[in-house]
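Handoff note, outgoing to incoming analyst
You'll be picking up this chain. Sequence as last confirmed:
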Amino acid sequence: MVFNSIPFVLFFAAFFVLYWLVVNKNLKAQNALLLLGSYCFYGWADWKLLSFLIGVSLLNFILGIHLENATNEKLKRLYLYIGLLQGLGGLLFFKYYNFFVTSVNEAFLAMHISLDLTTLKIIVPIGISFFTFRTISYLLDIDKGKIKATTDWVVFFNYVAFFPSLLSGPIDKAKMFIPQLENTRTFDYANAVDGLRQILWGLFKKVVIANNCAVITNEVFANYQNLPASSLLIGAFLYTIQLYADFSGYSDMAIGVARLLGFKITKNFDFPFFAQNIADFWRKWHISLTTWLTEYVFTPLSIYFRDYGNFGLILAIAINFTLIGIWHGANWTYILFGFLHGLYYIPLILKGTMNKKKKLGTTTLPSFLEVFNILKTFVLVMFTFVIFRSKSVAEAFDFYGHLFSKSIVGLPKFTGVSTIYFASIFLYIFFFFFMEWKARGKEHVLENFGMTWSRAARWSVYMVLLLVTYYFSSIVSNQDFIYLQF
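Most recent structure output, in case you need it:
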């Protein structure tokens, strides 16, 4: 059940009525309904996976209480390590066991040694990368004294399974989210309306931008060996747009749905395609993941390696971004993707500008220097996303080999895509970037949109967005959200 589906609309409509009109005066009943709704949402994919989610929640709930109450330091370490072992061990087993076995088999086979280690038929729990990071940060924050363990199991189980952000984030921290579950929530009309606007823009990004881009990118990456380099360049460009529109579209809808329920969850994107350098890009892209790893991985590593100067900082960055790559999945492409982004930081580290934030000007048009920096960063990211999209490292480099050829100056060609349809995609992308540029600095593109206009003019824009979204939802095959696989 995904946000851009009829089943979700029906589910949420019924849930919303019960949540605000039936149990709204009783916090415990409201939280109980929220947990039931979250489990129904998760169980829609596969009820068998629900037992794992409940088991993880129960174990970490108990560990959190014991971790806080333990007076013996060794006992505290034991409780923390059990939680870390469960979280990281679960990730390693479900997501990486077969990858590890296959890699070992291939490595020994290259030395003419056959191990024949057996892979397993493993069903990966949906959203495991997201809810595992929630439970790990919860235990780490208790251990560091940043938060108190909750003794209300319904509250904690909701923190782990909150359905708007369960499948693809954002990754909320307990210190921000749990207090919202513990306090009475009241319906805020203005906040709910703005949440609907955010859902509308997220839906537009997913259905109109991402799904239309996918029509071309799927063909390009599946048939790149038989297409001119100009088609490959367009495919790489459109995949970068597709990935952003798809993932940020999901995040916008998740945040909007949460707002309709009276919650504020973590902002996950901050107009990253207007970033001035790679550090600025990662401060704006998948914010909840990068801040999580910055706090729990990069900061401790940078302190540990501080005696090594710039080399230590580069090493900490490289490890951090390699882990970002590994987090995405069991493939050498993700590892290389993360490692390369770590290397991109080296010039900034050597120049001492890694932590210097560059703010965009407030003028209608960007300056020449801003345009240059934006394009430079975008191109760097775009070419690295080729690796992210490829099935293997060998395929990625083969793609590069075909991309950097003489046919890059030729006319692109795509099968089954008319010139009008192709042009319309770029027209919508231009509109998309225009709206994003106008809204830079806001929480989302349609925040307080058209408030100085007449109601008729404002609603005309909303209806156009809805009609265009409905139109493309009927003619373009629906694509799953990309980050559901992570």
